[in-house]
Design goal:
With about 475 residues, the protein is mostly helical. The protein is about 65% helix and about 0% strand. Among the domains are: about 130 residues, Orthogonal Bundle (Tetracycline Repressor, domain 2), CATH 1.10.357.140; about 140 residues, Four Helix Bundle (Hemerythrin (Met), subunit A), CATH 1.20.120. The chain contains 18 helices and no strands. α8 runs antiparallel to α9. The longest helix has about 50 residues. It is extended, with a radius of gyration of 46 Å. It is a multi-pass membrane protein. Keywords: Heme biosynthesis, Membrane, Mitochondrion, Transferase, Transit peptide, Transmembrane, Transmembrane helix.
Length: about 475
Amino acid sequence: MLLYKISSARATLSQQKSLKLVLNNGLRSFGSEKSRRRRRFSSTSALLANSASSTAPNTIPDFLSNTFLSTFTSSTKNSSNDTKPESAVAADVDATAAAPVASFPTTTPFPIPSADSNVIGRPPVEDFAAKAFSCTDAQTVTPRSRSKPRTKELSPIAPYIALTKPRLTALVVLSAMSSYALTPYDATLSQLMFLTLGTTLTSGAANAINMGREHIFDGLMTRTRARPVVRKLITPNDAFTFAGVSGTLGVAALYFGVNPTVALLGGANIALYSGLYTTLKRRSITNTWVGAVVGAVPPLMGWAASSSLSDPGAWFLAGLLYAWQFPHFNALSYSIRDEYRRAGYVMTAWTSPALNARVALRYSIAMFPLCIGLSYFGVTDWVFALDSSIVNGWLTYQAYKFWLEHRNSPKVANHNGQLIDPNYKFKSSSSGSAGSGGASNGFARKLFWGSVIHLPAVLVLAMMHKKGQWDWLFGPDEEEAF
């Protein structure tokens, strides 16, 4: 038992010696590191002490000056401890850890180096600190001005592109190209390119003239007030100049690249749209029928590019585009009928809502025989008559619901826009009554967007079912084989 206690005591003593050795090594390394830090700050402390002897009228706050003084003074005083033994270093460490934290003194501010002092080869130091902390300094701080919000800069040609009504022009070009593709003769790439270019330029010219003539009235309507002439991005004369150049180039492209017949149709359509149609819009409801003729001309241009206008297919295609204008435009005009009326445009949408809806339904139904006629005269196969009937039936259903809402609406004005009852009070289109707004506007929107989908769908189906399109896969029809 005694031997066991002696061995235990020796083991404990051995552990204590090992721990003391580790502690001494740590203190020795700590003292070496502290010595290196003191030597690093010694030169800086001496320079700051020299600069402190100079007098300066401005001082920084007390708490900041005393913080700097305590830091650099301790570094200067302890610089003499570099050669102290390890035991003295350990005692210093213990004393530092046990010492209480002193509060910041409120006196002896740290002086700012004078402007003539030169520290470590730098240029004379200015009194930046005093200026930063002084509230009575004569120098004032200019606040940073807020930058103006960035506005999207328009390209110089953007207003001229807007003059052409790009979406409407794209629809016109699509109808001309579809008609050209449906002709029984082979198409050529060069002829198609000139047809596309010429149709684009002539359509853009007609739209530019229309905007130049109607810019005063366009400013009265939400739908058209963002047009470039209304916003004064360009002047009406600029619009007319652009139209002249565009129209001339377009007719020339059609004349030399396609044929004189197509060029004549393109030039006539410019005059019809920018002249007769634009004038009638403020005089009679017949402007809608004239505008529908304008929409029927591009299919004739496409057909005449490679075939004769005596073919029935040309006129059935033109009739299809003519009929489509009414459900499309009558639904659009009804949704903004109050703006048309206030701007002075004579439209059936406000003069006679019942007639407006009845005409839309009538021409929606007319597209059934027109599509069947394309199959009958050999422009398309008979599958197109079935496919197109599905699409036409969907549009007719939308037109029928639109008509049901307005079949009993009273006639407000005659064909030239004169009120039948001068004391008649128009209802706001935002009201929920039938025939004036609310749900009826919803039917108008459905019919409008239905027409936007309908026309590309029918034209694509017609090109897919062009006569002889699939002979390479299914072989020619029996009547064509003999």
